[in-house]
Every structure is written in structure tokens, then in C-alpha cells.
Amino acid sequence: DAAGRRVVELVAAPGVAAFLPGVATPTWGYGGLPFGGPTLRARRGEDVVLRVTNRLPETTTTHWHGATLPARCDGGPHQPIAPGATWDAAWRIDQPAATLWYHPHPHGATERHVHRGLAGLFLVDDDVPVALPDRYGVDDVPLVLTDRSFTPDGRFDEAHRNAVGLLGDTVLVNGTVAPWFTATTTRVRLRVLNASPARSYRLAVDDGAPVALVGTDGGLLPAPRTVTDVVLTPGERAEVVVDVTPGRPRRLRSLPHDLGAVNGVARAAGGDDAFDLLELRPAARLDPSPPVPAVLSREVPLDERAVSRTRGFVLRGDRINGRAMDLTRVDEVVPAAALELWEITNRHTLPHNLHVHDARMQVLGPGPRAWKDTVAVAPGTTVRTLVRVGPYTDPARPYMIHCHLLRHEDAGMMLQYLVV
Ligand code: C2O
Ligand code: CU
Ligand code: CU
């Protein structure tokens, strides 16, 4: 616009998509897509205006999950967009390169709005050079995972919730059933988002080949980590680099997992299910990719010795610290410059996770520190995480802290905090 800001227009509207052969499914989508949304991309230092127009039949919001941003731009339940209205979120992008995403966050209806299809990726770039594959759609490939069940007449099944929420029997990857990707390089970076309302995935390559984990929710790891699987609970992201071998297709799968839950509960949470996610087919000729760099990020890790305060969060039922979400109550007040230690305890039989808006977190434990905004907390366990919020302050508008299993969030497993 005239002020030199980059304006990105996004319309949320109903659509119709064909996921199953010959079946038309009514959906909601962003940016003219019937399902999902376009990948947004912005660079650190850029002034953006994300302009959302609501052409849906009901009020929604658009939240920028993982973004460091002023509370008025957050897009949580306090920034409703009425049908026909347009809302601007304008701020200067100022955070390290990361794979963020966006989705609706209307109070009490987030699961339904996301389930109808509203979710997209939001990639942040920065000026720190790192030799990772970065050609979007060529060797830097987004994978938005979500699951749906269909009714006999081809609609998304919104009726069969269980204790974790809506679980589907069909996985959609970027809105596609049973996708394949033709790799033209010897390494491919996959940016994986779990955009599912309730389902967790344990990602692995079908021949057990190790992959390099290079990034998590909030940015790149200090150094790559060789792993054979990666668990993603709802809202979490992982960036992995997979080797491509000439003449040898590989399948990315989701394997059973228990999320720390006992057997019957793990089954109810979808832990017994296995899925094929993506077939990676090598092209006849592969261009060589550089090796995964030994150093990915020099960002200074959060320093446990600088913690100014410890807070506890107990997850149980649909409550946090015994409280249900109340739009008129502020639960925590956090100083903008502070580094805090948050101890998150799951005193419940179900797996939960905790997502903190505006925050960049590092979970304490062995191994190199990863940047997180959503952390899984298995039943009966406590996760200790360093939390940094700010720099934006607002004495009146809160950010959210909640379980990202969307049924739980909608049921009230959410608190509000101010950054002052
Ligand atoms: Cu991804 Cu408060 O949400
Ligand atoms: Cu968020
Ligand atoms: Cu939960």
C-alpha cells in the first residue's frame, strides 16, 4: 500500500471440493481455495497487512498461530469478523524463520470452523543464510495433515466426536487423498503441519530410514537431529529432510503411538491407527542437493538461570488450573521482557497439549533445545518449559493459552493472559 506495507487479502468462503472420486463435499476455504488456504510467506522486517474478509454464513476469526505479534492482531476470540466484514492484522514481522500457520479461533466453534477446511501455512523467512532446500514445491514441500470421515452423502462427518474430538478415517494431505510427490533432487525438505482437530501422528519413513529433523514450531534447531520418527500432536509442526534414493520410492507413514496414555485411552485418541501419508517417487534423474548443514541456527537458547518466575498449569478434564475459559477474566499477567518457567502437568487420563499464543518456548530436558509454541503433555507427566513472550504489550487485550485438541479448547480448556 502507500505506506510501503505488503497487503495480503484473504477471503474465507464456502466451497465444494472433490476428495473422493465422484463425490462433492461442501467445504470452507481461504483465498478462493475450496479447502485449506494459500501458503502465506513473509520476511523478517517486512510490514504486512493481512486483510481477512468473511464470506461465511457466521462470525469467524483468523489466528496467526506461532506469530510474535501485537494482541490486537492475534485473531483469537477477541477479534471476531462478522459475515461480510473485513479485518486487518497489521504488524512488522520480527521473528526467526519458521513454519507458522493460520486458522479460525471463534469462541466455542474453533473445531467446527477448522474441520470445515479453514487452515493454511504461513512461512516466515529471515536473512540468516542456511543451506537447506528452499525451492517451494520443488525441494521444500509443505505437508498439511488433517483427517476427516465422510457421511454417506459425501459431507464431512461432524457428528461422531469422542473424548478427544473429531477423528477421521481418511487422511488428507494438502487436501488430497493418497498423494504422491515426484522428487527431482537427492534431498527433500518436508514442512509438516498437523492441522487436525484431534489426531496425533507418528511420522516415519516406511523402510525405517532415518530423517534429519531440522525445525520445529518456532524455527530451526541449532543442529540437525537424526531420528526415525517424529510425533506431531494437533497444532505442532516439524521440518525434516528426507534422502531420496534413485529408483526407490519411499512412503511417509503415520505409525501407531500411545502418547503416554494407557491402552483404551490411546485407542480412543486414535493411537492405534496407521496411515500412508505420502509416496515420495524419485524422478529418473535427480539433481544433487547439498548435505544438511551441521549448524542450522545460531540463535541463543533461552537461559534457565535467567528465569524470573515459575507458573504452574494443571490440565484435567476440560479445565486448566480448575478454570474454564472466561472471555471476561484475565488469568495470568506476564511482563513482556520476562523469561519464565512454566510447569505444565497433565492430571488426566487423556493426552493433551498446551499452546501459548505469542510465545516462543523451549522445553527443558536432555538434548538440544527446540523452539516450540505447542507442547504435548502425556497423562501423568509434567513438562517444564521456558517461555518468552512479547515484546508487544497491551494492558487490555489478552492472548490465549489452551489445549490444541480443538474439542477441548471449545469446551473451555483455555485461559487468557496479558503481556504488560
Ligand atoms: Cu492454533 Cu490458539 O491456536
Ligand atoms: Cu496460536
Ligand atoms: Cu486437550
UniProtKB/TrEMBL annotation:
Pfam family, one: Cu-oxidase_3
Signal in keyword set: yes
Reactions the enzyme catalyzes: 4 Cu(+) + O2 + 4 H(+) = 4 Cu(2+) + 2 H2O
Enzyme Commission number: 1.16.3.4
Top-level taxon of origin: Bacteria
Keywords tagged on the record: Metal-binding, Oxidoreductase, Signal
InterPro entries, A to Z: Cu-oxidase-like_N (IPR011707), Cu-oxidase_C (IPR011706), Cu-oxidase_fam (IPR045087), Cu_oxidase_Cu_BS (IPR002355), Cupredoxin (IPR008972), TAT_signal (IPR006311)
Family per similarity comment: Belongs to the multicopper oxidase family.
Assembly notes: Monomer.
Protein name (database record): Multicopper oxidase CueO
